[in-house]
Amino acid sequence: MPERSPTAPPPSFVWTRRIVLTLLTVFSLLPVYVMLSSSLKPLRDVTGAFRWIPEHLTVRPYVDIWRTIPLGRYFVNSIVVASAATGLSVVVAIFAAYAVSRYRFRGKRVFTITVLSTQMFPGILFLLPLFLLYVGIGNATGIALYGSRGGLILTYLTFSLPFSIWMLVGYFDSIPRGLDEAALVDGCGPLRALFRVIVPASLPGIVAVAIYAFMTAWSEVLFASVMTNDTTRTLAIGLRAYATETDVYWNQVMAASLVVSVPVVAGFLLLQRYLVAGLTAGAVK
Length: 285
Description:
With 285 residues, the chain is an all-alpha fold. It has two domains: 11-60, no CATH class; 64-284, MetI-like fold, CATH 1.10.3720. The protein has 14 helices and no strands. It has helices at residues 11-39, 43-47, 60-68, 71-102, 108-117, 127-141, 149-173, 177-185, 190-201, 203-218, 222-227, 235-238, 250-270, 272-284. Helix 4 packs parallel to helix 7 (149-173) and helix 7 packs antiparallel against helix 10 (203-218). It is globular and about 70 Å long.
């Protein structure tokens, strides 16, 4: 009988881990299965007694979701708002984090503490001040921030930017300063050294920041419910339109939820290794 390695875990631990992981996997996938099965049922089967195996399969809910509400418009609004907020957050965070990581300036410590302290307050505290601010700016200048995509983009930028700066500062600190010095010796200026040397070396951290900012804007509900109107409504709010005064189209709700989840899930799976590497390096350093 072969001897067990001294560093190998005991068989009881291995089997316990397998059982626990199996139970967690089933627990995580069970809601997805219920959502999928409900999206393939007629409405009468969804509102009746629940059956694990659907008796009448239909793809009609996936066709009706585009007709019951303007789902396409909500989808475009979410894509535009989330993409713009992500792009601005990444660009601003790169410059701010590089300055904090590489330069000494007056108020640097105060700036860092202020950036981190903004994450200690619940977002609902900023709802009324931002609403009054947007309305006041619109009345004074005519710039429509309330009820517009631009106002929602600016709102999400304020939420994702502090964490993005903090994480990129930790990632930039892990890059040797010798790379900057070598680039300067070769004739690069500070900006050229940033984009030619530091940014390529920090790609996992930048991707992690982009994923965080996109997911924050994509699934946000509170501010989108107040800062948007019928034209600029996003998916997170638009899905509520499947509930009318007389009925709730649960099969269409499940179908629409699966459809709108595809871009986020696909992007996460494609960029998962960058996200793990970026979060690990940014958190440890």
